[in-house]
Design goal:
The radius of gyration is 16 Å and the shape is globular. The protein has one domain. Strands 1, 2, 3, 4, 5, 6, 7 and 8 form an 8-stranded mixed β-sheet that branches. Helix content is 20%, strand content 33%. By secondary structure, the protein is an alpha+beta fold.
Length: 138
Amino acid sequence: MNLRTLFLILSTFSLSGCLITEWEDVSGEDEYKQIIGVQLKTKVAFDLHGVTMEPNYEKVLHQYALMESPGFSGPEVLSKANIPVGTLFNLVKVIRCVDCIFKKEKLVLEFTSSDKYKDAPITYSYDRYLKMQKEYFE
């Protein structure tokens, strides 16, 4: 296999995560049942990014991505808000990417004290939650 072919294959795989993906609710699976309904209180500052998944970065909100500060930027970010220490969330479900190459889950959260950000799901990486739960949440 030449270098050009390898580059093409790697480019295709890396770009495949940039398209609109389909998600399924896996909250009922044994691995996730015990965390549904858990209340999370932030111990660090987070950023909440309004994100579009449109291929041409159209101004269509698909989700809010909760990330540790300083977060991220790019054409897919439509908005950004600071989430202070002590913010409360309810963990309402776990979703899994159906058409991703690798297994990928996200937590879906809701603010407990605000009706803000109800126009799209608030998501947080399940893997990141497992690794940093004690450091980031009470």
